[in-house]
Amino acid sequence: VQLVESGGGSVQPGGSLRLSCAASGFSFRYYGMNWYRQAPGKERDLVAGISKGGDTTNYAYAVKGRFTISRDNAKNTVYLQMNSLKPEDTAVYYCNVKILQTGVPRDYWGQGTQVTVSS
After folding, report:
1. Are 31 and 97 within 8 A, CB to CB?
2. Nearest to 31 by CA among 50, 52, 49
3. Is the CB of residue 79 less than 8 Å from the CB of residue 19?
4. d(Cα 24, Cα 1) in Å, to the nearest integer?
């Protein structure tokens, strides 16, 4: 399983970024996908999730209405469109998939991409 994030960077408050996560090594279209983030000194928190077919999404309260998760199963890619960014959105963003192995769910993570929101 390989997850490769891209699209992070530095942006001013109110700006936008689009993160991408290219997946390989598993049957992407059969798994829900997630985005997490981790700010310095804090725990890694779920930001958004999307079902395998893309018809169901869920968001953390802090990002609801500003972030949109989507996926392209033909490209094995999941996206996170982030609008109206705030300084508190600054974090390393990670792509995640949970795959059941021998009856136990295992988390797989990408390397992360840094998002910095600052004036």
Report:
1. yes
2. 52
3. yes
4. 6
Separation of alpha carbons 68 and 55, rounded Å: 13
β-pairing, 44-50 vs 33-38, is: antiparallel
pLDDT tens readout for residues 58-84: 999 999 999 999 999 999 999 999 999
**CA dihedral of residues 55, 77, 41, 100 (deg, nearest 10):** 70
| Bridge pairing between strands 17-24 and 77-82 | antiparallel
Q: Average pLDDT, stretch 34-58?
A: 97
> Which pLDDT score, from 0 to 100, does residue 83 have?
98
